Amino acid sequence: MRWRSPNCPVLLFLFFFLLCILSAGRVSGFRICSYNVQNFNVNKAANYRTLHTLTRVLSRCDISLLQHVVDTEGKAIKSLVSALNRGTDRYDEYVYQSVSSRSLGTSASDMQQYVFIYRTQTVNVTGQHQHESQLQFVRAPFVVQFQSDKTTIKDFILVPLHSDPTQAVQEIDWLYEVFVEVSEKWNNTNVMFLGDFHASCAYVTRSDRKNIRLFTDSSFSWLIGDRVDTTVTDATSCAYDRIVVHGQPFLKAIEPFSAQVFNLAKEFKLSKTAVVKVSDHFPVEVMLKSSALLLQATPLLLLLAVSVIGWCCPEL
Ligand SMILES: *[C@@H]1O[C@H](CO)[C@@H](O)[C@H](O)[C@H]1NC(C)=O
Ligand SMILES: *[C@@H]1O[C@H](CO)[C@@H](O)[C@H](O)[C@H]1NC(C)=O
Predict the structure, then answer these.
(1) Residues within 6 Å of ligand 1 by CB
(2) 316 lies in a domain?
(3) Which of 61, 68, 114, 153 is 20 to 30 A removed from 281 (C-alpha atoms)?
C-alpha cells in the first residue's frame, strides 16, 4: 500500500481517536430498567450474594423500577441503596436515591410496593402520583415524573405495573385510563409503561389483544417483542415483562433496537440456580438517546472523517 500523502497516518490516527471518543460517549447513554425482584424483603437483602448480584444489575441503570418489593419499613431498600452507594466499583461514581409507593394489594398476605431507584447526577424526580380509581387494579400504578438534562426527551413519565395474572388483560387495558390521568395532570404525553404485565403465554393471548387499548391504539409502541423470554427457568418461555411508550416524540428519543432482556446468567456468568435466588424474572431495559452534543453530531463527524481520509489517501 503506497501513501499518497505523508499526513495520512496522522489523519488515520485522528479518525480512530474520534471513533474511540464517540463509542465512549455511547456507553454513557441513559438506561431505564425494570425488574420484578420477586418478594424482595429484609431476608433477601440480608443475603450477601443476592444483594451483590442485584447491585451489579442496578448499577448499570440510570433509573430502575423494582416490582414485588415487600418492605413496609423500608429496611431492605435502604440496604440496597447503601450497597449501591458504597462504590466498590471504582467506575461508578453515582449517588443513588429511591422513591417507593405504599404497600399495595387486596390481601394482607400479599402486599407489594413499587420502588424506583435512580442516579441523582443524571435525573431528577419532578412528580409522584398514586393512581386511585374505582377500577380493580390489585396493585395500582405508582407513577413518577422524571426530568433529565442528559436525555433528548427531558421530561418523561414512568407508569409501573405488576399485573395480577388472573386479570392481566383488564389491568393492561386500564393503563390507558392511567395514561389519560397523568398526561393531563402534568401536561405531558411522554409516557412509558413498564413492568411485569404477565403479557404473554396463558395470561394474555393473541386474541386478547383486541381488548387492550395499548395494543389497538397505534400511538403506543411495544418495545419488548412477543418472542422475548423474560423468565429465568428453561421450563418457560414467556414475554411477561414489557416496556411500552406513547407517542412519536418518545419513540424518537429511544436508541433504536436498545430494548432487550438483560440475561444476567449469561452476562455475569452465573448459574441459573444463583440467578433464581434473586428472581425468577430477568430484568428488561431500554436506552434513551443522550443529549450530549458530540453524540448528536456523530453522523456529521463520521462523514467528515471518511471524506477527509478518502480525499487524502484515495488508494486506501
Ligand atoms: C436537577 O434539577 C436541578 C435543579 O433544577 C438542576 O440544576 C439539575 O441540572 C437537574 N439535573 C439533571 C440531571 O437534570
Ligand atoms: C401544555 O404543553 C404544551 C406543549 O407541550 C404547551 O404548548 C401548553 O401551553 C401547555 N399547557 C399548559 C396548560 O401548561
Answers:
(1) 122-124, 147-150
(2) no
(3) 153
Helix (H, G, I), strand (E, B) or coil at 40: strand
CB neighbours of 302 closer than 8 A, spacing ≥ 6? 22
Q: What is the DSSP letter of 231?
A: B
- Identify whether the C-beta of residue 75 lies closer than 8 Å to the C-beta of residue 51: no
CA 280 – CA 263 distance, rounded (Å): 12
- In angstroms, the CA 218 to CA 209 distance is 12
Query: Closest residue (by CA) to atom 10 of ligand 1?
Result: 124
Locate the ligand 1 atom nearest the alpha carbon of residue 122 and give its number: 13
SS3 content of the chain, % helix, strand, coil (to 5): 35, 25, 40
pTM score above 0.90: no
Q: Do 46 and 160 lie in a common domain? A: yes
Among 118, 119, 149, which is best to mutate for testing ligand 1, by the most ligand atoms less than 8 A from CB? 149
Q: Which one, of 117, 175, 174, lies nearest residue 146 by Cα? A: 117
Q: Are residues 102 and 233 in the same domain?
A: yes
* Chain segment 66-93, per-residue pLDDT in tens: 999 999 999 999 999 999 998 665 456 8
Per residue in 195-239, pLDDT tens? 999 999 999 999 999 999 999 999 999 999 999 999 999 999 999
Task: From residue 234, give the alpha-carbon distance in Å to each of 224, 226, 259, 273, 281.
Answer: 19, 17, 22, 11, 12
Phi-psi region of 257 (alpha: psi -120 to 50; beta: other; left: phi over 0): left
